[in-house]
């Protein structure tokens, strides 16, 4: 059965983006970018919601979209009841069905090497709550964006125990943390 990886980038204070800041908070370095290019999960099917699709496909449609060329080539599934076919971004399939059941079917079919998310905070939250997430990966960027931060990643999440399975430092400042998540019914003990 293919694994499902929830993949986030975050500021130290848990934001997925910040107003006025560039992508990756302007801190992506050569080591991190090389790892992104060589990551074995680059062949996974990407899962996203409509908001992330609109944002990312808009970036990909711009003339300077060379940095998103690899993402454009990847297989993508968008879960949405507001979007309609045909979708403009190459290699993207629209699913207008109950998300958790659709992802459960994708995992059970085994027809993909693996699945991973990009952005899509509510999608990730619902997949985690349903117990479908096999691995949870976070790359922490060394900034606190308390005044400008947008999209608090973990708001609305259940309590989750995390067993660390890997960690790495990129460019002397970015922290990659990988965990196996377990949704908890309440605080331990």
UniProtKB/TrEMBL annotation:
Pfam families assigned to the protein according to its UniProt record, in alphabetical order: RibD_C
Occurrences of domain Bacterial bifunctional deaminase-reductase C-terminal (ranges): 3-175
Superkingdom field: Bacteria
Protein name, as recorded: Dihydrofolate reductase
Lineage start: Bacteria, Bacillati, Actinomycetota, Actinomycetes, Propionibacteriales
